[in-house]
Design the sequence.
């Protein structure tokens, strides 16, 4: 025995179905109107951290490794500029700058360039002026940050020269790093040594 079918016609559209099927279609239509529209699917952003020493796209340099939180500075990755900024004097031999840190190169650099109306701290100036991929927050690393680089990415630095840190030892000298063997000591601020800018990437 064939099931009874009902014909429906509206706005030129014709449909013939059993009463049970029409009820199913009606319920489905009511649910479709009641449910909110589907949210657009957002593409997933990659959170993959490049290998140590590898270029970090859009960050202005290479991955120098994770630096744990210390004091008021949250944990962050140290981004090492792709190249040296040049060779410069540390500056102002005979003048002891107060408040410089062994670990916080960013604050050191801000202190030095803030006291530098006549460009008397060339190494810090060169790093603060360095820009890459739209980033202009580079700085002269502190001695602990240079040691961090020697531990993690020594291959990014020249082995036959010395690099200035932003850490002062005395009125006459500041700390430097020799990447061939990880040796650190101080030299006269009037000497021209290599400088490599770094920046922080907080994630």
Sequence:
């Amino acid at each position: 025995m064939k099931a009874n079918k009902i014909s429906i016609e509206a706005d030129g559209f014709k449909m013939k179905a059993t009463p049970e099927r029409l009820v199913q279609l009606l319920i489905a239509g009511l649910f479709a109107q009641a449910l909110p529209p589907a949210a657009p699917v957002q593409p997933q952003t990659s959170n993959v951290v490049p290998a140590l020493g590898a270029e970090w796209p859009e960050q202005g340099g290479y991955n120098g490794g994770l630096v744990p939180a210390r004091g008021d500075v949250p944990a962050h990755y140290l981004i090492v500029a792709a190249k040296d900024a040049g060779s410069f004097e540390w500056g102002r031999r005979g003048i002891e700058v107060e408040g410089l840190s062994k670990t916080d190169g960013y604050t050191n650099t801000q202190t030095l360039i803030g006291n530098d109306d006549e460009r008397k701290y060339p190494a810090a100036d060169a790093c603060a002026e360095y820009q890459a991929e739209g980033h202009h927050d580079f700085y002269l690393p502190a001695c602990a940050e240079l040691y961090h680089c020697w531990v993690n990415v020594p291959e990014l630095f020249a082995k036959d020269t010395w690099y200035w840190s932003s850490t002062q030892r005395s009125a006459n000298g500041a700390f430097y790093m020799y990447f061939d063997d990880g040796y650190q000591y101080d030299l006269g601020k009037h000497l021209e040594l290599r400088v490599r800018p770094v920046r922080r990437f907080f994630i």
About this structure: The chain has a mean pLDDT of 87. Helices lie at 19-34, 105-114, 122-129, 143-152.
